[in-house]
Design a protein that fits this description.
- With 495 residues, the chain is an alpha+beta fold.
- It is 25% helix and 30% strand.
- The protein folds into 3 domains: 20-223, 3-Layer(aba) Sandwich (Rossmann fold); 227-304, Immunoglobulin-like; 318-471, Jelly Rolls (Sandwich).
- It is built from 11 helices and 25 strands.
- The chain starts with a helix and ends in a 24-residue tail after the last strand.
């Protein structure tokens, strides 16, 4: 008799356990329109509780195990106040250009020391709306989180009315901007009061949060505008050009029509794209894609021109590594730096255009604190294995430029956070002079310089040290800084 009584109890227990598991299917579905290298940044609370698998970690783990080919990263940044996010944090996010930002600022807003006070519901809504506009205007996807009730040691019932008001504000901003809400508050309400402990959410609650977060992320990706990529540009001989739709479910069903005469293709009579296009003349390719599922369209235009291959140059005495020169000073951009510098404050040899290699160069008489207010110039040769069109990428904070000979190929200049730019050039097999300029201002961002290359026999990769050389026989030419501007003396008789 006992045996029969146990069976229904076990079935009921298994049912409860199964229902409490997180449903992360929306983000691992093969049709969900992820793109390789997508980055998600979480701002605010993560509701960690010891002994439970946090909802953020659940999202990370399932993406790494079920969709590892995508290389999606989920970064949880520290919490902060909504006013600080509006005034400075949103700008930093724009500079770093993540794919998506999840905003979950609430508990940190109420956990402030006197004389600071939590912002009101109306202030919260105003600041949040400003953050959303800053991000969406730059094409960054946004998910808003309706906050959970305060954890018991974070104010509990005292702050609950205010946090409930924040949840209303979140829903209001989301509705006004057509954004998805990960409604954590609504997800936890049916689970009872014990789901939220002294300093976090238990495992059942974490699973509920992961479920609604996954649903909101997938829905936001579905709302993202479709884009169209035309691979190519300058080329040698003949080029085969694919046209690729992005950020869309079932891309194979997207209809693409194109023209090569520089005019938009007719939506019905334009040439229907079926396979990559072969191009052997100068032309402008325009493509328009239509998603039959929702009627959304995307347009792309690329000019194709036959490139002239630059002839190689031979160094007098070929030796591995690049030479570098360091200049201390405050610069607005690379052009400004190059017009003002004289003799370098330090110089040496580095295996590649690597800031850390310069810092650790033991030949310098004293360490180089390359944190801000300096310029850096790498000079040498790049040895290319085949003729073709090469793409050089610069990712830097602040500005950088890359020259092949006297030709500016990639321009990532100016004061900014981590930004990547690219440039293309036709080069023959052999060695070509390369110069990489970089400067760092006193801005808050960390120094960053990354140089990558893509070409006929190599996919985009960090530029290999083995193809970089300098001329060991070359004698350095003394640098003469631009003359300082002369102040005009005013005639005391003139007013």
């Amino acid at each position: 008799m006992v045996r029969f009584l146990l069976l229904p109890a076990l079935v009921l227990m298994a049912s409860v356990m199964w229902s409490a598991e997180a449903n992360l299917d929306p983000i691992i579905d093969e049709a969900t329109p992820w793109e390789r290298g997508d980055r998600i940044v979480l701002i605010g609370d993560s509701h960690f509780q010891q002994g439970s698998i946090n909802w953020v970690d659940q999202l990370r783990r399932v993406m790494a195990s079920k969709r590892p080919e995508l290389g999606v990263t989920i970064e949880a940044r520290g919490s902060g106040r909504i006013k600080g996010l509006e005034s400075a944090g949103a700008g930093q996010l724009v500079n770093n250009k993540p794919t998506m930002v999840i905003i979950n600022v609430s508990l940190s807003e109420i956990m402030v020391e006197p004389p600071l006070k939590p912002v009101s519901k109306d202030e919260y809504e105003g600041f949040l709306g400003s953050v959303v506009r800053q991000l969406t205007n730059e094409g960054i996807l946004v998910v808003l989180v309706a906050p959970i009730p305060p954890e018991k040691k974070a104010g509990g019932a005292t702050h609950e009315p205010l946090v409930a008001g924040y949840a209303e504000a979140v829903r209001s901003v989301a509705a006004a901007n057509n954004l998805e809400v990960a409604d954590f508050r609504a997800a936890l309400e049916p689970l009872g009061p014990n789901v939220i402990g002294d300093l976090g959410v238990n495992q059942v609650g974490q699973n509920a949060l992961a479920t609604v977060a996954a649903k909101a992320i997938a829905a936001t990706l579905d709302k993202a505008p479709m884009t169209l990529e035309i691979q190519g540009g300058d080329y040698l001989g003949t080029i085969t050009v694919p046209i690729i739709p992005h950020r869309v479910r079932n891309p194979e069903k997207v209809e693409i029509r194109y023209s090569l005469n520089g005019k938009d293709p007719h939506p019905k009579s334009g040439t229907l794209y079926k396979r990559p296009i072969k191009i052997s003349t100068n032309c402008t390719l325009i493509a328009i894609a239509t998603n039959p599922a929702n009627g959304a369209t995307a347009r792309a235009e690329v000019r194709f021109e036959k490139a002239k291959s630059r002839a190689p140059e031979r160094p007098g005495k070929k030796a591995n590594a690049l030479t570098y020169e360091v200049f201390r000073g405050q610069f607005k951009n690379c052009r400004d730096m190059m017009s003002r510098i004289g003799e370098p404050d330090a110089k040496g040899i580095a295996m590649g255009p690597d800031l850390q290699a310069v810092i650790e160069d033991e030949t310098n008489p004293e360490p180089l604190p390359l944190l801000s207010d300096f310029g850096l110039v790498f000079t040498g040769f790049v040895d290319l294995p085949a003729e073709g069109v090469y793409t050089f990428f610069l990712r830097s904070s602040d500005g950088s430029r890359l020259f092949i000979g006297d030709q500016l190929v990639t321009d990532c200049d100016g004061i900014h956070g981590a930004v990547e730019k690219m440039g293309r050039i036709g080069l023959r097999e052999g060695t070509h002079p390369v110069r990489i300029e970089y400067f760092k201002s006193a801005a808050a961002t960390r120094p960053l310089l990354e140089v990558s290359i893509d070409g006929p026999v190599m996919r985009k990769t960090k530029i290999p040290d083995m193809i970089l050389f300098h001329d060991a026989a070359a004698k350095p030419k003394p640098r003469v800084p631009a003359p300082a501007p002369v102040e005009e003396k005013k005639d005391p008789k003139k007013k």
